[in-house]
Known about the structure:
Distance between the termini: 64 Å
Bound molecules: adenosine-5'-triphosphate, magnesium ion
Order of helices and strands: EEEHEEEHHHEHEHEEH
Protein name: Abc transporter
Domain ABC transporter: 15-247
Organism: Akkermansia glycaniphila
GO molecular function: ATP binding; ATP hydrolysis activity
Keywords: ATP-binding, Nucleotide-binding, Transport
CATH class: Alpha Beta
Amino acid sequence: MPLTEELQVIAPxxxxxxxxxxxxxxxxxxxRALENVSLTINEGEFVCFVGPSGCGKSTLLNIIAGLETPxxxxxxxxxxxxxxxxxxxxxxxxxxxxxxWLDVIGNVMFxxxxxxxxxxxxxxxxxxxxxxxxxxxxxxxANIHELSGGMKQRVALARALAPNPRVLLMDEPFAxxxxxxxxxxxxDIQAIWEKRKKTIIFVTHNVRESVCLGNRVVLFSPHxxxxxxxxxxxxxxxxxINSVELAGYSVQITSALKGYEKESHE
Length: 266
Ligand SMILES: Nc1ncnc2c1ncn2[C@@H]1O[C@H](COP(=O)(O)OP(=O)(O)OP(=O)(O)O)[C@@H](O)[C@H]1O
Ligand SMILES: [Mg+2]
């Protein structure tokens, strides 16, 4: 039997952010969230965004997701302007946002609801595959409130992966978890990225986390949000967050970050 489309390994996407500027106006005035930001993310790259609060990381992620539009400049996926939200780009957030009235597999199947090519049996098969990938085989019929924080994020990851997106957008997905749980997820997300060949953008405040996961770390500074520096992380995988090699990059990036934080308070 041929694999359903959702189980195939499909080509990851290339993203081009060209001269993007984005302002937000509220009663308190206008904030320039992003100013002339340009960035290329290659097919299948794992890129981490790091920077102080308010430097536009989530705004850029939302633009790529098609939830916001730039005031000027353009965001392209495979050379085509991003028209709006789509299942080829799935988002994952710090809060899992799972449906408490559905069980684990129900939550994952829900994200396949709009896939007209799948019948119910195939939807079940696809959801089971992704729950296996995130190591939740034994919990498919558990209720959401019975799960630990780490397990809830695993369900959220399976739900984001199930429509087989070409880009995975992750906005501080592990920020609320304890260190041990995060470390297990670092190993698992690297393995999933290698197996499923996704383009991943991962936002974090944790510099070590960014070095552990990214092929590249993009450092932003705020007011207005700009890209200040980019670091290629040339370390073999799987990476261990506690390794000495990783610490070398972290020290370098953290000291740059502290410089921007100092600037923004002057
Ligand atoms: N919908 C909105 N309305 C008004 N201002 C906004 C909106 N979204 C973002 N902003 C402002 O734009 C700037 C960038 O916000 P953004 O959320 O992208 O930052 P961030 O880098 O993700 O920050 P954090 O690390 O705290 O999540 C901030 O000053 C924020 O207050
Ligand atoms: Mg944010």
